[in-house]
Amino acid sequence: MPSHQVVIPVFDGIQPLDATGPHEVLMGATRLLDHLGSERAGYRVTLVAETPGTVTSDSGMRMCPDGPLPETGEIGTLLVPGGGGSRAMTSDHPLVEWLRRAAPRAERVVSVCTGAFALAAAGLLDGLSATTHWRYAPALAARYPAVDVRPDPIYLQQGRIWTAAGVTAGVDLALALVEADHGAEIAQYVARELVVFLRRPGGQSQFAGPVWSPPARQPSIRAAQDLIHSDPAADLRVPVLAARVGMSERHFSREFTRALGRSPGDYVEQVRVDAAKRLLESEPVLVTVAAARAGFGTAETMRRAFLRRIGVAPDQYRRHFATTAPIDGRT
């Protein structure tokens, strides 16, 4: 089986990690598949550019493309990185014009971070939902009103078009591509090798805390995990989760516990504690606000959960770990 062809156009003003992060994920998967003697081929990643020679990134790093922008031949994945260069591209930019020609030849088209600006300039996101780095989402929405810009998700898939949020989200998206192509076990192994988070669903907020819990093998339980991590403040009672994934309450509770080694209620509480910790560390919110946003409902419920899980109350936790001061000095 031939390798899946991945083409990454590079340009002056690129954000290097938008290209190197996915590159490492995809080639890591390729090495693993080779090691396992899999009949399924991995990836062949090619960096291409409009003109010969090196390109200079936003940070000054120089990157050397493998060749010119290909005008013929099928493309497996066309992956467009972000950076100041992509944000400056307009509809008549040579790379944007090439994207219009190349996209129909690609099985899927992917942008990382502000690479979404290049896809939007090429008209490839018209009528679709897309994400980008939260800082630049308002500018993308204002410049391209035909695009439904979602500033929150880590990545989004709309048919064969995938868009990812800022920088490291490109790694999450690349892992999702590997999982779609080769299954969860290969993606998990690559994530462990790269020492990155094993589970960040695409719908999870860019502002949510990282989640280290491995995904369940059973699709319905994995779907429940995604629901929990994507919105910890939602109604996550067992009857609601069971109904959302099409299972009876008793069967759902049994299978969830068997798959993850803990009950749904215990799992939900841990995810909510993690979300609240992130809020208390990074935002100057009242404890009552953090409790509501993390899904606890009341500050007292959150306090009891914190004492059970980490042995300190929320206000004590913030005093030790906060990077911002609470509003008006209050808890």
Structural write-up:
By secondary structure, the protein is α/β, with parallel strands linked by helices. Helix content is 45%, strand content 13%. It contains 14 helices and eleven strands. The protein has helices at 16-36, 84-87, 94-102, 115-121, 137-143, 169-182, 184-194, 219-230, 238-244, 249-260, 264-282, 287-294, 299-309, 314-321; strands at residues 4-9, 43-49, 55-56, 62-63, 67-68, 75-80, 106-112, 129-130, 148-149, 155-158, 161-164. The strands form three sheets. A seven-stranded mixed beta sheet has the order 5-2-1-6-7-11-10, with helices on both faces. A two-stranded antiparallel ribbon has the order 3-4. It has a two-stranded parallel ribbon with strand order 8-9. A hairpin with a 5-residue loop joins strand 3 and strand 4. Helix 1 packs parallel to helix 6, helix 6 (169-182) runs antiparallel to helix 7 (184-194) and helix 11 packs across helix 14 (314-321).
Which secondary structure elements does this structure contain, and how are they paired or packed?
Elements: E1 4-9, H1 16-36, E2 43-49, E3 55-56, E4 62-63, E5 67-68, E6 75-80, H2 84-87, H3 94-102, E7 106-112, H4 115-121, E8 129-130, H5 137-143, E9 148-149, E10 155-158, E11 161-164, H6 169-182, H7 184-194, H8 219-230, H9 238-244, H10 249-260, H11 264-282, H12 287-294, H13 299-309, H14 314-321
Parallel strand pairs: 1-2, 1-6, 2-5, 6-7, 7-11, 8-9
Antiparallel strand pairs: 3-4, 10-11
Helix pairs in contact: 1-6, 1-7, 6-7, 9-10, 11-12, 11-13, 11-14
